[in-house]
Amino acid sequence: MKAVLYSSLMAIALMAASTIAQAAPSAACAYKQQEIETQLGFAKQAGNQYQIAGLERALAAHKANCSDASLEQERQERITKAEHKIAEREQELAEARAKGDPKKIARRQSKLQEAQQDLQQAQRPLPQ
Predict the structure, then answer these.
(1) Cys-Cys crosslink for 51: which of 43, 60, 104, 120, Cβ 3.0 to 4.6 Å?
(2) Which residue has better confidence, 126 or 32?
(3) At residue 16, does pLDDT exceed 60?
């Protein structure tokens, strides 16, 4: 009798703990959810049905699957992609300098600065 009572109490405690864990997402997941909801609000204001549908799917997937590990993996992928883009832009700038065309050099420098800004954004730490 005690064993049945004990196992019942443990099951109830585990269900309560999992409900509490689901109810309180991490700060990083909550931040990402807020970003998606903000974009969804803008899409609704603009009446963009395709964007609304996509963002609603993204929000549902986020709510179902968000974890700090998945967000960190996405962040690392963005950093890697931005670093590759910087290398590409630096190569383009070097080629423009070799040709000596001031307009191309200015455009390539601008694109390089843009890529560097993207990298800085990607390197921002996740909210804790």
Answers:
(1) 43
(2) 32
(3) no
The tokens for 52 are 């609304």
**Is-contact 66 29, C-beta < 8 A?**
yes
Q: How confident is the model at residue 108 (pLDDT cuts 50, 70, 90)?
A: very high
Do 127 and 104 touch, CB atoms closer than 8 A?
no
The pTM of this model reads: 0.67
Tell me the C-alpha distance between 112 and 88, whole Å.
9
Place of tokens 């954004």: 121
